[in-house]
Amino acid sequence: MHIGILKGNGIGPEITAATQRVLTATGRSFTWVDIPIANEALALHGHPLPQETVEALKAVRVTLKGPLIVDKLQGRLTCVHRDGSEHTYPSLNNAIRRELALFVNPRPILGMGALSGRHASLDMVIMREITEDIYIGWEHQIGDYAAEAIKLTTRAASERVARYSFEFARQNGRKRVTCVHKANVLNYTDGLFLRCCREVAAQFPDIAFDDCMIDAACYHVVKNPTRFDVVVTSNQYGDIFSDLGAGLIGSLGLAPGANIGPEAAVFEASHGAAPDIAGRGIANPIALILSGALLLRHVGLPTEAARVEHAAREVVLAGEVLTPDLGGSATTDQVADAICARLRPA
Fold first, then answer.
1. What is the pLDDT of residues 88-116, one digit of tens each?
2. How far is the C-alpha of 274 from the C-alpha of 203, rounded, in Å?
3. What is the pLDDT of residues 263-306, one digit of tens each?
4. In sequence order, what DSSP letters do the residues of 116-170 get, joined into one string?
5. Considering the domain 1-108+255-346, what is its CATH architecture?
6. Residue 178 DSSP class
7. CB atoms < 10 A from the CB of 236, how many?
8. Cβ neighbours for 50, distance < 8 A, ≥ 6 positions apart
9. How far apart are CA 233 and CA 49, in angstroms?
10. How does DSSP assign 192-261, residue by residue?
């Protein structure tokens, strides 16, 4: 099985290597395909996301991705396609998703025992639409005194992510889908998103449906960990809400993620590249390891996925081998070793 590897930068190479070791420890044979990105691609091809990289990602179809550094106040890049057309994206992460036609970013948030305190029972999956909303990056300056940004919502994208969310709920024994929005203020954009979710919900009578405004959702998830099951929401809200959820269970280092499209999928942790601790060997690899488990499930290896998830959870619950973000003193490699040691034979 061929799996693409985008090592990323910052802590990316460290936690990617740790994840590869854990996936290999399942006993399955993988062929890792290193694909250049960011500075590595810039040195080889003169662009951080050249068409050579995009084509390699499309060819391999399934990729494990380390985090990438995205600097404040910069990061926009233009991808020029083979046919001469071009598209400008607000960030490298956004560009990868859009160039590969990835449309939904599932982010599971699962409580981790005592580490999560009163949020130990939190168990939700956030389905973040990733093709539009304010993150399309259509913005411009008005002199030096103002700036404008476009918030795009389309029926096609809203219906697609809603349908994916309900199908996921049905296939995974989930009971409820909640649309998170701000349609009381953004009547047209969020209003369209909510209407589309309601229309799709009517086609899934076996799955309960409700909706919640984003500010209220933030309040409720803090006060009542069992309030949400599957959450479907737009790009920016999903980005922010999933970070809140990760904080409630103890760390962004426990929050996996995926980017799914019709022809390709990229699996990544929900956190960033943490350049301040890069190279020190103390980065928490668990979020990317759990993302690796999502990858295994995506390619039809549910048993191996469950083994990885169970082993990672056992390590966290034992509390003996934890990185500094979780209150421990273990290294990245020590955490990976502990998870490998707990992988149960098939």
1. 999 999 999 999 999 999 999 999 999 99
2. 43
3. 999 999 999 999 999 999 999 999 999 999 999 999 999 999 99
4. GGGGTT-EEEEEEE-SSBGGG--EEEETTTEEEE--B--HHHHHHHHHHHHHHHH
5. 3-Layer(aba) Sandwich (3.40)
6. E
7. 15
8. 41, 44
9. 28
10. HHHHHHHHHHTT-TTSEEEEEEHHHHHHHHHH-TTS-SEEEE-HHHHHHHHHHHHHHHT-GGG-EEEEE-
Sheet of strand 265-269: strand arrangement:
31-34, 2-6, 62-65, 265-269, 256-260, 104-110, 123-129, 230-233, 176-181, 208-213
Domain boundaries 113-249, corresponding CATH code? 3.40.718.10
Note the Cα 124 to chain centre separation in Å.
14
Helix, strand, coil abundance in the chain, percent, nearest 5:
45, 20, 35
C-alpha span between 149 and 283 (Å, rounded): 35
**CA 313, CA 311: separation in Å to the nearest integer?**
5
Q: Where in the chain is the domain with CATH 3.40.718.10?
A: 1-108+255-346, 113-249
Global confidence as pTM: 0.95
172-193: pLDDT as tens digits: 999 999 999 999 999 999 999 9
Count, residues in the chain: 346
Identify the residue whose tokens are 């929050």: 255
Whose tokens are 């993620």? That residue is 257
Residues 335/321, Cβ–Cβ less than 8 Å: yes
